[in-house]
């Protein structure tokens, strides 16, 4: 018997805050439960988001300068204490009297701060994008929500990207320095025109799409690469979504707007620079770590890259004498993307709205999970996140992930199975690999709604003993294309399914093919003609590359017809090794997936 139960996502007071309590994928760090003697006899994870005291205004401590518009919003709802330049000791002393804390990047919100709050602190607001200065694990443990203000800077960052683009094309910074040095070198600083040139926007999110709009107004031909951006949104502003390699090969200018994730770290490197047009020009107002800076210097010296304009660096500020910063054909600014008066005021308003919304309890309801539930679901939590990660990596670019269905098969009655934690971890797996947002139990539903992601749940009640909470979990993504066609089930969705065996999560189904591979390390999926010797052929290629195979399974439609081979590997094979696998005549398609 299957009952469909679409989860109704709440609409919060906030405009677009990105929330996080923990970035770790383990159960203990994302949802820690303390068993110390100070806790009640039956420990529970309790995250209370509404103001605890109903008979008085809450108190908000603003520890760094905030725009007046934001302060005015706060004062309508709360008592506001503006105390700047506090020492760590002074902050710990004050915090026990506060329900909320707002900081920028200069204040460290450490574990000691949460401990000193005595449980009263309900929300920390970071006026800006990054939350590196907040101890997220401690925030989770003490039931404190962390919000930031990621959208108010969008236009400012896009404008700075265009400013760097035009300044680079016309050598503005270099010519300015030359004139101030008493020189008049008109012939040396001849620039290039933007009209008719191709701009590749790498990352078509909020900032990337705004850069594209402005570049179109300058007469540029704009293409974009973003495997998870909806093609209709790109078409609406006259932008064509293309593959990563096509973007590199076609672009006269490249503007970077992707988050820094393991998949995008040093995504521009010696290999990718070699695929670009000679004389390409690069702008980066995203994250410094997406470029291999040593490789960029080599590309500049070798003439592959004509110029670069950089607002962000791997280490900020860059060390004295940094070769890249001092390069004659590099224009550098000190992370000014968000530095406009309007953006700073917008950040103040956005973070004030986020903090007020959290204190009003409009962000999410109280979350309570008994320790017994947490313990019992622990292996399924790992399975849920990994299925989400697998599913989103199978999506091809151009369609965008909007509709996800999760199916739970269990012998327990629906009322006996609390799936909030599993849904949160599937959301975590779907979103974290393609963004810089941290997802957990508290913010999962809001984060999904913020990205236009609708997740429905279906439960299938099985006959048998309800001793185990779940038999299997299936994740389906609808209305998308797949980079591995065999992952599309007969009903037309990307489908992955898994179960827990002896405490270890296993992938048991891809599309319509039954497989059985442990979800540890990474996975290679191959669709092949079912014939003798295939396991040995692929295993030999991996062995020659010193890649250890942890598991291998083959699912087939019928003997001597099509089959899908799932291979678990401990290490990532080199690109030449993957190419050799793809070149095996009987292999029709393959994909490498990181877990």
UniProtKB/TrEMBL annotation:
Its EC number is 1.1.1.95. Gene3D superfamilies: 3.30.70.260, D-3-phosphoglycerate dehydrogenase, domain 3, NAD(P)-binding Rossmann-like Domain. It catalyses: (2R)-3-phosphoglycerate + NAD(+) = 3-phosphooxypyruvate + NADH + H(+). It comes from the Eukaryota. SMART domains: AdoHcyase_NAD. InterPro entries: ACT-like_dom_sf, ACT_dom, Ado_hCys_hydrolase_NAD-bd, ASB_dom_sf, D-isomer_2_OHA_DH_cat_dom, D-isomer_DH_CS, D-isomer_DH_CS1, D-isomer_DH_NAD-bd. Keywords: Acetylation, Amino-acid biosynthesis, NAD, Oxidoreductase, Phosphoprotein, Serine biosynthesis. It is an enzyme of class 1 (oxidoreductase). Residues 523-595 form the ACT domain. Coiled coil: none annotated. PROSITE patterns: ACT, D_2_HYDROXYACID_DH_1, D_2_HYDROXYACID_DH_2, D_2_HYDROXYACID_DH_3. Pathway: Amino-acid biosynthesis; L-serine biosynthesis; L-serine from 3-phospho-D-glycerate: step 1/3. Homotetramer. This is D-3-phosphoglycerate dehydrogenase. The lineage of its organism: Eukaryota, Viridiplantae, Streptophyta, Embryophyta, Tracheophyta. The gene is LOC103335142.
